[in-house]
Design goal:
There is one protein chain. It is built from seven helices and six strands, in the order βαβαβααβαβααβ. With about 170 residues, it is of the alpha/beta class. Strands 1-6-5-2-4-3 form a six-stranded parallel sheet, with helices on both faces.
């Protein structure tokens, strides 16, 4: 869907407007999802500051790259540490790739506001949720194991369609 035809889209550059919409929903957790390179970490850090919540970056729960070889992204995460972090927090902004898989059994979807951050380099024509990659058509089949895991996740979970809040970051 081109950006011009999307209703209710907020822009990453207006973090306060995004925080206001999220606060109105009144849920304990905020889950920021999106493709690699969308700007999730930068956005989530700013959003957490605006909401006065801790920021949980899933990548910080990964072991060193040489420690694990044949597991998926989520299988590499220290999910016990994630559970402990979230259990002790009154709320949190959680971001990373495949966050709903990582949070399965830890955070109920009803306790979280789903935010999908899309990078859009061509506001007039890009598909806003994945900057022109048509996951439905099989685009992006190549790439490394992480690209393939991420593509499979987006096809299965459809976070761009299930988001409570859709946020676009315009990139050069």
């Amino acid at each position: 869907m081109p950006l011009a035809s999307a209703e209710g889209v907020l822009f990453a550059s207006d973090v306060d407007a995004v925080a206001k919409r999220i606060s109105a929903l009144g849920r304990r957790y905020v889950v920021v999802d999106g493709f690699t390179g969308a700007g999730k970490s930068t956005f989530a850090e700013s959003l957490a500051a605006s909401l006065q919540l801790p920021w949980v970056e899933l990548d910080s729960l990964l072991p060193p790259p040489e420690a694990v070889q044949d597991e998926s992204y989520v299988e590499r995460l220290d999910l016990q540490a994630l559970g402990r972090l979230l259990e002790s927090a009154q709320g949190a902004v959680i971001e990373g790739i495949q966050p709903w898989d990582a949070l399965s059994g830890i955070v109920a979807r009803t306790d979280a506001t789903a935010v999908y951050l899309a990078r859009c380099s061509n506001p007039a024509g890009s598909l806003i949720w994945h900057d022109g990659v048509r996951i439905e058509d099989g685009d992006g089949e190549g790439g490394n194991w992480l690209d393939r895991c991420e593509l499979e996740y987006h096809r299965r979970v459809r976070p761009h369609q299930d988001a409570d809040v859709l946020v676009v970051r315009i990139s050069e």
